[in-house]
Amino acid sequence: MHTSIAICDDEDIFRFQIREAVEDYCEKKKIEYTVREYSSVEEYLKRMEKADLLLLDMEMEEMSGIHLKEQLEKHGTNVRKLFVTS
Predict the structure, then answer these.
(1) pTM of structure
(2) Half-sphere exposure of 83 toward its Cβ, with a 13 Å CA cutoff?
(3) What b/e readout covers 49-59, taking b as 16+ CB neighbours within 10 angstroms?
(4) 39, exposed or middle or buried, with CB in 10 Å at 0-12, 13-18, 19+?
(5) CA distances to 6, 10, 54 from 69, in Å
(6) What is the pLDDT of residue 67?
C-alpha cells in the first residue's frame, strides 16, 4: 500500500524537520510513501493534490492551518489531518 503525505508549513526549517521525521518513520516501518511540501495554505489549495495525510502547521502568516481544515471540510475533502505547531 502506498501512502501520500502532504506537509504544509510556511517555515522551511520546520518543513525539513517534519519531512525527515516522516521519512525516518516510513522507512523503519517499511511503508511506501511520497511526500509533497507546501509553503502556504494558498499553495496547497491551488494545487490540491490528493493526500492520505496532511501534516499542517496551525500558525502561518497568510492563512492558518485551522482555516485550511475548515475549507477542506466545507468542500467534503476527505484527508486525515495532523496539526503540528511550535
Answers:
(1) 0.89
(2) 11
(3) eebebbbbbee
(4) middle
(5) 13, 16, 10
(6) 83
